[in-house]
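Hi U.,

Before I forget, here's the chain from the pilot set. I'm dumping it here mostly so it's searchable later in email.
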Amino acid sequence: MTIAPNGMKILNHLGIGNRIARLGAPIDFIRFTDKTDKAISRFGNKSSKLDEVGAIALPRSTLMQVLREKVSEAGITVLNDFSIDHIDYHHDYVNLYFKNKEMVKADMVIGADGANSTIRQYVCDGQSTPKIHKSVVIGGLVKSENIKSIINYKDDSSRSSINLLLHHDKSFGFCCGSKDESIWMWWCRVDDDISEKISHTLREKKRELLLNAFSGWKSPVQELLLETEYISVNHAYDLEPLHSWHKNRAVLIGDAAHAMPPSSGQGASLAMEDALSLACSLSVNDLCPQIAFEQYASMRKERVEKIAELARRQRQPPVSPLKFWFIKKALSVILPIVGPRSNKWIYDYDPRQISWYKRAI
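Structure:
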């Protein structure tokens, strides 16, 4: 996964940004090539504020481990195996009933339970279900001491880049995921027929289908596929904008409120922004959660919906070879100019600059 500069601001605020930066790999550039690794375009991927940590790539499990340790240090108890079954709302409390037959009485409920959120069904009266795109997200993680010899670019900046190899009907992306370059992550997009086959086959057959689909592509595409122990296949969720993110004493954050298209690269970072914004709003309005929820949603909805819509427009369906040739020419001219500028408003955002946040601290 990649944590964008705006997400790293939140981790810095929690005091774990430097540790994440030490464990992960910097992503200073986004690099576009064709399937032969012929350059199309490249642009910077940093915040415009030079004193801040830029984007970092690392395995999701690494981030989760660091967060768990931080939670433990703060003396917060985490209960496992509590899957929500249903909720009863009352004027000044909420009863949560779990599938393990336990019941908890709480002042409020924060639904951070992902794109398939159960809490959202209550907040939205069961009216909102994530839209599932036909395409699937295919990816993998490579952990190997030998991988450094496989990723053998003459241009060292490729080691600190998101590398995107593009073709008219498919694409392959990869980046480093650790400071010592022993972990690399990859993801790809293939046509619907291959996606459907991959979704319903065993592990080695998945690898065979992908090796055939990317036959002849520039190294290290084939090498990464061969070195991957487990190839993951998931549906891409894209949640239509919700009318409301809260109801009574329940509120939604992260993917539960706004599941992002994978092309946004912002799912984790926006969830972190949500968490800090909600915490600050509750600090200011500690006696009335409903007011805090309304303030939080009013500050967040426009931003996340704008980013989601931008990601939807960036999704590139298969095109003809001729159209792809024109797209490559356009990207080579436009991206170096527009790329950094288009991300500035996303990366430079800092909820700590909002007036009510300053009052909270």
